[in-house]
């Protein structure tokens, strides 16, 4: 994959990078809602600014957006597909440190398969990948089977890009456009693996990660309304 990027001029520029543009690029679907929201904001959208400003972490209360890359792929060991993140953002915190952010857009679609389903008849490659993900997250044992696999590799994508850019902070943000906050329970269950409880609009730190400080948040945006 080339490391040359060009600026966007409209949300339509995001469409070409989707795995299935015909299926995914529709009004009411996360890919399009996310693109339209971030292009209109020309920076961090309102819900993310509010979440950061109200956080318990002074250095993260206001971030400068350095760059944002739609449909950003992060390679993982064990073969198979890369983690294709809806949006990668590199920011700068108030203390001058860099922040690696992976944004997962959501409307009504789920976070993909559970870990139990993903591991059915698992190959050696899948086992190797899961071991890598757990180690990167500082987990000493595999998460329960009901945890969504997608959340594991999205969080690790933020960690890996933090290491690549020598960033002190990594962050996974679920950017929801669902009035019902669909699938929030799955996000909360993922955080419980780290012994962390949460609610919408809160920024929390996930302890135990060996290489960076990892944070997570669920924000709800009004852009789709």
What can you tell me about this protein's structure?
There is one protein chain. The protein is an alpha/beta fold. The chain has one domain (32-220). 32% of the residues lie in helices and 22% in strands. It has helices spanning 12-15, 21-24, 30-41, 46-53, 115-118, 124-137, 149-164, 184-192, and strands at residues 64-74, 83-92, 98-106, 169-176, 203-206, 213-220. The protein has a six-stranded mixed sheet with strand order 1-2-3-4-6-5, with helices on both faces. A hairpin with an 8-residue loop joins strand 1 and strand 2 (83-92). Helix 6 packs across helix 7 (149-164). It is globular. The termini are far apart.
Number of self-contained structural domains: 1
How many H/I helices? 8
Strand order of the largest sheet: 1-2-3-4-6-5
**Dominant shape:** globular
How much of the sequence lies in strands comes to 15-25%
What's the β-strand tally?
6
Largest sheet: 6 strands, mixed
Share in helix: 25-40%
The mean pLDDT is 94
């Amino acid at each position: 994959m080339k490391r040359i990027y060009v600026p966007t001029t409209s949300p339509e520029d995001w469409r070409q990078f989707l795995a299935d543009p015909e299926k995914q690029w529709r009004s009411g679907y996360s890919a399009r809602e996310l693109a339209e929201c971030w292009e209109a904001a020309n920076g961090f959208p309102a819900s993310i600014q509010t979440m950061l400003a109200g956080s318990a972490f002074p250095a993260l209360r206001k971030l400068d957006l350095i760059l944002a890359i739609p449909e950003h792929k992060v390679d993982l060991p064990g073969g198979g597909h890369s983690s294709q993140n809806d949006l990668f953002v590199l920011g700068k915190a108030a203390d001058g440190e860099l922040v690696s952010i992976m944004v997962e857009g959501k409307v009504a679609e789920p976070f993909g398969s559970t870990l139990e389903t993903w591991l059915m008849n698992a190959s050696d490659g899948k086992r190797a990948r899961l071991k890598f993900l757990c180690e990167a997250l500082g987990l000493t044992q595999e998460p329960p089977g009901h945890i969504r696999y997608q959340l594991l590799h999205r969080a690790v994508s933020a960690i890996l890009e933090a290491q690549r850019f020598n960033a002190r902070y990594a962050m996974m943000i679920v950017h929801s456009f669902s009035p019902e906050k669909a699938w929030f329970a799955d996000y909360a269950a993922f955080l419980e693996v780290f012994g962390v409880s949460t609610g919408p609009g809160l920024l929390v730190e996930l302890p135990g990660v060996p290489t960076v400080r990892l944070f997570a948040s669920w924000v709800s945006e009004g852009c789709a309304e």
